[in-house]
Design goal:
Largest sheet: 7 strands, mixed
Shape: globular
Bound molecules: pyridoxal-5'-phosphate
Helix content: 40-55%
Oligomer: single chain
Number of strands: 11
Structural class: alpha/beta
Strand content: 5-15%
Order of helices and strands: HHHHHEHHEHEHEHEEHEHHEEHEEH
CATH topology of the largest domain: Aspartate Aminotransferase, domain 2
Distance between the termini: 51 Å
Length: 499
C-alpha cells in the first residue's frame, strides 16, 4: 500500500468509527446473527490478488458490523465496561503507527520511560502507597501488562519463587520439586475465574474459600484455611483478594486478611481489575483500608478508565521478586537501586517483547485529566444509583446484594426460575444486554452501567425495557416449560458468574 492510499484509507476508517459512535443508539445492542452465519459470508480462501481498500471497508460495514455486540451501546449492561475513548483510539493508532517493540531500554527508550512516568502518575492518582511509585525510593513500582489474568499469574509465579528462596535460605537441603507441590493459593468463591486459572497454569493447589453474606472473604475464614492446610503438611503461599468481585463487586477486607498473610509470609495480591479505577475518587479510598499489607495490586485502565484494550497496570512492592523469578539469564544486578526508574520490563512480565501501551494511557490522562476520570466514575455510580431507585420502586423485584459501584443486582420475588426466564426473554429481544450471577444461592441479574455514553434517559429506557420483560414473564409464567430454556441455541447463552 502506498502512503497516499494509506492516508485515504485511514481517514475513511476514522470517519467510519466517528459515525459508529454518533449513531450507536440506532442499533440493537446484540446482533441478529446465528452461529456460523458470519463464516458463511466469508470466502473459503484468502484472496489471491490484492483487493481495493474501498471494497474491504464495504465488507467491514456490511458483514462485520452486523455481527458484533455493541459494547458501547448505552443499553450494554453486561460484565464490566471495556475501556474505549476517542483519545485512546488515537493512542492505539499512534502506537501501531510507530510499529516499535520495546524489549530493552535501547529498543525504544520512550517506550520504557513513558511507562515509568504514567504508572507513577496513576499510583498517585489512585492514592496507592508511595512505595508503588517507580519514581519513589525503594524497590516498588508499576508495569503495564496485557491483562489482570496475566498479572495474577505473574505474581503467583513470583510468590512461589520467593517462598522457595526463603525456604532454601533456611534449609539448603530441601527437595525443591517436592516442596513446590505443597504450595497453596487461596481466594474467595466470588473471585474472578482468572485466579483459579492462574492456579492451574502455575500448578498450585487452589482453595476457593466461602464468602460471608456480603460476598466478602473474611480474615477468620482465611486463617482457618491456613491452619487446616498446615496441619496436612501443605504450605500457604499466595492469597488473591478482590477489590470488586466480578459477580457483585464486593470488596474483601484487607485490614483483616493482610495481617494474617504477613504473619505467615504469604504473598498478598489484590485483584482490582474493574473497581480499582474508583480510587481516583477520594470518597472510595476507605475501601482500601489495609492496603499497606499488600505485595501486589492490579487494576485495568482497559476496563473503567477509558483506555482501549489492552492495558492492565500491575504494582509490586518489590520488583526484584519478579526479576529473581523471570531473569533466567541473570542480566540484572539485584542491588541496582535504579531498576524501578530504569526498568528492564521484560523481566517483569511473561513475553520478551512489549507494545508501546503507555502511549494510550498517557494520551487518555492528558486529554481527560484526572478530573475527567473522576467525573466518569461519579456520573456512572450516580446512574447506577438512579437505576437502583427505580428497581426499589417496583415491589415485584428485589435488589440483592446492595449495589456496589456501577453494579446493581436484582431478581424477581417470584423466584429464580422466573428471574432466569426474564433475563433470557430480555436477551432474546436484543434491546438490552445483561448477564447473571449467583448470590446467596439466588439467581440474580447484574445490571452494570458500562458505556461512557449512557445517560439518565438511557437508564430510563433500559428500565422500561426491563419492566416490559417483567410484565411479559409474570403474565406468561404458566407457559414456561421448567426444563426447556427460552434460548434457542445454548451458544448464545449467558455467562453466569462463579457460584
Ligand atoms: C475482578 C476481575 N478480575 C480479573 C478479570 C479478568 O481481567 P482480564 O481480562 O484483564 O484478564 C475480570 C474480568 O472481568 C474481573 O472482573
Amino acid at each position: 500500500m502506498e502512503t497516499e492510499q494509506f492516508r485515504q484509507f485511514g481517514k475513511t476508517a476514522i470517519d467510519i468509527i466517528a459515525d459508529y459512535y454518533i449513531n450507536i443508539r440506532e442499533r440493537d445492542v446484540l446482533p441478529s446473527v446465528l452461529p456460523e452465519d458470519f463464516i458463511r459470508l466469508m470466502p473459503e480462501n484468502a484472496p489471491e490478488s490484492p483487493e481495493k481498500w474501498q471494497e474491504l471497508l464495504e465488507d467491514f460495514q456490511k458483514k462485520v458490523i452486523p455481527a458484533i455486540t455493541h459494547w458501547h451501546s448505552p443499553q450494554f449492561h453486561s460484565y464490566f465496561p471495556v475501556g474505549v475513548s476517542l483519545a485512546s483510539i488515537v493512542g492505539s493508532l499512534l502506537c501501531s503507527g510507530l510499529g516499535i517493540k520495546g524489549s530493552t531500554w535501547i529498543s525504544s527508550p520512550a517506550c520504557t520511560e513513558l511507562e515509568v512516568v504514567v504508572v507513577s502518575w496513576l499510583a498517585k492518582m489512585l492514592g496507592l502507597p508511595e512505595y508503588f511509585q517507580n519514581t519513589a525510593a525503594g524497590p516498588g513500582g508499576g508495569v503495564i501488562q496485557g491483562s489482570a489474568s496475566e498479572s495474577t499469574l505473574v505474581c503467583l509465579l513470583a510468590a512461589k519463587h520467593r517462598m522457595l528462596r526463603e525456604m532454601k535460605a533456611s534449609n539448603k537441603e530441601i527437595d525443591e520439586d517436592r516442596i513446590k507441590t505443597k504450595f497453596v493459593i487461596y481466594t474467595s468463591d466470588q473471585s474472578n475465574s482468572s485466579v483459579e486459572k492462574s492456579g492451574v497454569l502455575g500448578s498450585m493447589i487452589t482453595r476457593l474459600l466461602k464468602t460471608d453474606n456480603n460476598g466478602q472473604l473474611r480474615g477468620e475464614t482465611l486463617k482457618k484455611a491456613f491452619e487446616n492446610d498446615k496441619s496436612k503438611g501443605l504450605i500457604p503461599c499466595y492469597v488473591v483478594a478482590s477489590y470488586g468481585t466480578t459477580g457483585t463487586c464486593a470488596f474483601d477486607p484487607i485490614d483483616e486478611i493482610g495481617p494474617i498473610c504477613r504473619e505467615e509470609g504469604v504473598w498478598l495480591h489484590i485483584d482490582a481489575a474493574y473497581a480499582g479505577t474508583a480510587f481516583v475518587c477520594p470518597e472510595y479510598r476507605h475501601l482500601m483500608k489495609g492496603i499497606e499489607y499488600v505485595d501486589s495490586f492490579v487494576f485495568n485502565p482497559h476496563k473503567w478508565m477509558l483506555v482501549n484494550y489492552d492495558c492492565s497496570v500491575l504494582y509490586v512492592k518489590d520488583c526484584f521478586d519478579l526479576i529473581k523469578t523471570f531473569d533466567v539469564k541473570g542480566d540484572i544486578d539485584v542491588n541496582d537501586e535504579k531498576e524501578t526508574v530504569f526498568p528492564q520490563y521484560r523481566y517483569w512480565q511473561i513475553p520478551c517483547s512489549r507494545r508501546f501501551r503507555a502511549l494510550k494511557l498517557w494520551i487518555v490522562l492528558k486529554i481527560y485529566g484526572a478530573s475527567g476520570v473522576r467525573d466518569l466514575v461519579r456520573t456512572q455510580v450516580n446512574l447506577a444509583n438512579h437505576f437502583a431507585s427505580l428497581v426499589r420502586g417496583d415491589s415485584r423485584l428485589v435488589i440483592e446484594p446492595e449495589p456496589s459501584m456501577t453494579v446493581v443486582c436484582f431478581r424477581l420475588r417470584k423466584g429464580d426460575f422466573l428471574t432466569e426466564k426474564l433475563l433470557e426473554y430480555l436477551v432474546n429481544q436484543k434491546k438490552i444486554f445483561m448477564v447473571a450471577a449467583i448470590f446467596r444461592n439466588h439467581y440474580v441479574i447484574r445490571m452494570v452501567i458500562c458505556s461512557q455514553f449512557t445517560t439518565k434517559d438511557d437508564v430510563d429506557r433500559s428500565w422500561n425495557t426491563i419492566q416490559d420483560g417483567v410484565n411479559y414473564v409474570l403474565s406468561h409464567s404458566h407457559r414456561f416449560n421448567h426444563r426447556k430454556s427460552l434460548l434457542t441455541n445454548r451458544r448464545l447463552s449467558l455467562d453466569i458468574e462463579r457460584v
